[in-house]
Amino acid sequence: MTGSPGLALAGVHAAHGPVEVLHGVDLSVDRDELLVVLGPSGSGKSTLLRVIAGLHPATRGRVLIAGKDVTGWRPGRRGVSMVFQTYALFPHLTVAANIAFGLLVRDTPKREAQERTRRAAAAAGCDHLLDRLPGQLSGGEQQRVALARALVREPQVFLLDEPLSNLDAELRVETRFELRGLHQRVGGTMVHVTHDQTEAMVLGHRIAVLQAGRIQQVGTPDEIWSKPANTFVARFVGSPAMNLVPAALARSLLDPPAVVGSAGSGADGLDNGWLGDPGLVVGFRPGATRLGGRGSAGVVEQVEVVGEDAYVRLRISGQSITARVPAGDRPAVGSAHPVSVRQPDLHLFDGSSGRRVVLR
Amino acid sequence: MTAGNPTRAAPGADPRRWQPALMLAPFLLGLAVLVFIPAIVTLVMAFADYDLIRPPRWIGTRNFTDLVGDDAFRAALSNSLWFAAIAVPIRLLLALGLALLLHRRSALVGSARTAAVLPTAVPEIAYGLLWLWLLNPVYGPINQLLLVGGQNGLTAFGRTPPQWLTDPNDARTAIILMSLFTIGEIFIVLLAVRVSLPAELYQLAAIEDATGWDVFRRITLPLIAPVLGLLLIRDTIASFQFSFVPALVVTDGGPPPYATTYLSLFIYRNAFEYLRYGYAAAATLVMLVLTVLAVVVQWRLIRPFWVRYRL
Fold first, then answer.
1. Helix/strand/coil for A78
2. Which of A2, A114, A234, B300 lies 20 to 30 Å from B96, alpha-carbon distance?
3. Residue of B nearest to A104 (CA)
4. What is the pTM of this model?
5. Is the pLDDT reported for residue B10 higher than 70?
6. Degrees (nearest 5) of the Cα angle B121, B81, B260?
7. Given CB atoms, is A76 within the 8 Å cutoff of chain B?
8. Mutate which of A85, A92, A131, A161 to test chain B, going by most B C-beta atoms within 10 A?
């Protein structure tokens, strides 16, 4: 990437009244990058977006857009556009007038405003609706109009506040792809806020996981999935959530079994000495958990069938572990099965800080 | 118990049949006694001569032809129409301005809202007596204030202060002035409407760098317009009535002959002071027709908004 990033946050703090909700957020988004901010509700992700837009003040820290410090600027000068979760369409204006709103209040010549409105509507796929009123549109159509309105000014930064959360499941999947295609066509710095991990995985070039007002990890969807920075990210991304167990229990599940001793003595050439460390928490995903093999046995407590998969909850040594198996192979509740995991599928975390531990 | 016995469910014996009528009865009775019967009596009386002492005498449409030639009635009609035309729009604009000013929660806003509503809560007679003092040309605080900075009994601009109670135009202005502080209800309605408008619309406008004027013209006003229209109709109807107490208590319908005699006061005088009940009833009918006309015209102007918003 060349030059300054499209958007940068440096040590941003923000508060709602006396309660601080952002505790020093650093973030950098490249030009033409689509960054997804992923977090549970109450994590401060909407506040973060509103701080970038200038709708909410930052108590400390700086916001830079295209290299310019815009921290004290009013929203209208920042060159951002925003799609709200509720779409915020003006009920008394036609689709065309809604899209053109930002152009009209900025005194764009009428001819130019019409042309740009038409182009933005075409890009967002709502150019057949221009004469309608928002009340006559479906949720999906309203969402396209809100997108077109965000596109029409060709802003530096697009901010999208959970724009897909009000759509039904099928439409959400479809719109997700369209949104990604749209970004590929028009480019620009895009920050998309969501609590939906699938949406984040599918859409984002990179994902910033936010929790309790702090960025937990920033990385590509691959990195977030395969190298979660801490136990929060590990459990928040992935469904069902990653199993987290004490090291001793993980050791009893290893197949091939652990070899405690000198370096290089493990079955796959790894030192298994860490498996005796009581300060470690070990994670493995339900999909990497196998029923059968040489691991210790657990009792099936609960089975949830979700289409082709079944999520099997087992209890081993007082710990609850979830395994994902094909629905056809699901065991009966109450039966006992050995549970096995392979060493490469394990994630290691520090027991007290929750941070990822890297061996070697 | 005879549950399920068909004779128990026979029509007439089922209490549920007359229960709704019984529950509505108090309201319907009140409506009949206080509204429908007086309305019919008024309608009939408009074609009679009646003074409470002698029996009514049928005189056809003479009450109406008399009204046309009556200077007092013509003055009252013109006063009422001017009052509505001037006071109602200013009342609405004032209430709208206050609502937009005070819709945000911040320090002192609560007190300011209370202050805006308070005059409306004062009993009308007390309100009138209060203004009688406020408007006193010699010691009334309003003229005292106007004289500040002036010399020789003139205002700072070198003009004689308004003679609220003795000059016809000043007196009409005084009645309008009095009506401008009793806008509490309109204010509350507009405040509620403004508070209920989605905050996102205004945040979007901020992101689009809309000026305050643009926000008002393109967002707030169109979204409030349907309610504003309704309030316009309501206040126009009410304006024929809320000029009554001020005119009676403060200006006594004068200065002579009829500077602040409004239709309501005209009707009151004819009925209860001159005992011309038939004449007063005819004037009431005229006032009613005027009200209906005003409502129809305004409804025609407002209806397009309502259709557009699918209200």
1. coil
2. B300
3. B210
4. 0.81
5. no
6. 70
7. yes
8. A92
